Here is the input.
Amino acid sequence: MNFDHPVLTSLLPVVLLILVGVAVGRAKLVRQEAVRDLSNLVFLVLTQALLFRTMSSVHLERLDVRPVFQYFLVAGGIFFFMLVVYGRNSRASVLALASVFSNTFTIGVPLIGLAYGESALVLLFTLISLHALVLLTLATVVLELQVAHEHAAETGESRHMLRTVLLAIKNAVLHPAPFPILMGLIYAQTGLGLHPIVDKPLQLLGSAFGPVALVLVGITLSQTAIGENFKGAMKLALVKNFLHPFLMAAAGYAMGMRGLHLTVMVVAAALPVGTNVFLFSQRYQKEEEVVTSAVAVSTVLAMVSVTLAMALLPLLPA
Here is the structure.
């Protein structure tokens, strides 16, 4: 086996970090009641630093958003289809997000950088700069609307539809994921840049996000009955790893996308479920065990899905 292959060099460290978390959880080095605190640390501190710093250098006028727009058309279509499949309730929005949200940063950056070079990374960074903003905001707005609807059904209190929509948008914008993205994007347009005194702590906090989040997945996995959740996790992983890239390839090709643009978008779609979905599920306490299992199953399956995508894409006619 060639351990220098881009797929293996990108995915194996992810698997190993999850296994470290499993070992930590099994050894009870982190108590079960402390997992929620660790999740808050990752979601409310490390994620904030990573997202704000990433977006603080994004200049909208330099982005080639056409392939990314096509990517989100496909992802959005799958999201709403899975939303209906899973029952159009608050738990369904978490599961639908897991069906389309890729690990574009921790796995995607090293994988695509090694396999396709700097020009491909520019395309990927364009996707990354909008990935969380678009998909997390979409899922948050939908989930907040569903939570409001469910609350009204339980209590008998009814809100005016416009008020409910505005409240959902407000909660989505002030949500710990979209908010730093929007603030970073707004700050980037000032052209001021980040002073090293501010940038360095943000860089250190942001660089801790990937490994700590993956170890947290492993800790949670050690406390999860994966056998009981395997069917649901496999269903999510098959949609994420295989249906998502297949539809991305078909739709992208039909819309005239070719070459490196198509390759980067399809390989990104073939990546496993991103850890942000796991944190999202913990934040709302919806389908935590299924999503945790899906991250693990999807990461293993990605060795097949990413390899297939990279092997088959060059066979498409120009």
